[in-house]
Amino acid sequence: MACENNLVVKQIIDLYDQISKLESLKPSKNVDTLFGQLVSTCLPTDTNIDVTKMCGEVKDMRSNLIKLCGEAEGYLEQHFSTILGSLQEDQNPLDHLHIFPYYNNYLKLGKLEFDLLTQHTSHVPTKIAFVGSGPMPLTSIVLAKFHLPNTTFHNFDIDSHANTLASSLVSRDPDLSKRMIFHTTDVLNAKEGLDQYDVVFLAALVGMDKEAKVKAIEHLEKHMAPGAVLMLRSAHALRAFLYPIVDSSDLKGFQLLTIYHPTDDVVNSVVIARKLGGSNMTGVNGTRGCMFQPCNCSKIHAIMNNRGKKKNMIEEFSAIE
Fold first, then answer.
1. Does the model's pTM come out above 0.70?
2. What are the TM regions of this chain, as residue ranges (predicted)?
3. What is the residue range of 21's domain?
4. Where would I find the beta strands (DSSP E) of 94-210?
């Protein structure tokens, strides 16, 4: 792939070549090492690299790499969810989530998404949907445990085995077992009921390519309630070799509120949009929930960066026609 001369991109291509030759992407010393190196290589954001402007060979490699990352991530979550779910009956799996290698990243991402959500809605959501929750629904768990103690979370996944593992994680918790509900379905088949959620999360790996991602967003736009919030995961700079990018042009029918690009070890960018036609002053169906406590956005980034340096890129947008 001589069309890309950037040294870092060459390193990513080399790692892709090694990863694509693995017999299995299930957790192992070799798999963990290669993906660890890949993530470390893709973390720097002080680069002007735009993956969308690279040559066809590199674009094809990136598409394949994102799929490999998604497959490996699924195996990793399945592995640790199985371990946690097999703990003795007197142990709560949620007390041992720290064994998952990226748990701290989810804690940071959950705090970030909660803080950003409070900037764009006046009331605490009563019902949240997470589409593509997987065998280890850490975003729902983190938000439910630490930030939204009275909110019900509906988790959607196409894989029944993933939902079985996820349900096992929360079944022994006296609180979350009542507030975490699991639905086995393809989101494109989910129509009735999507208008009951104040907030809908769309996982990064739902829609592994642009066409599938846009199709999922268009479906949600048709069936979400006016004024409901859509939160998506995207990627920026070299991190776009790991996850798909969500562009503002993909969000027709939504008001794009914020795109946040972390520059620490939280890999995903966060995109927040609101379904056009509603108000942020009330919940779905015009109901009013509890007020969020005032949140000082300037403090968010200090919390997210333990070295106290500026570690963010935020873009604010108006409505998309």
1. yes
2. none
3. 1-277
4. 127-131, 152-157, 180-184, 199-202
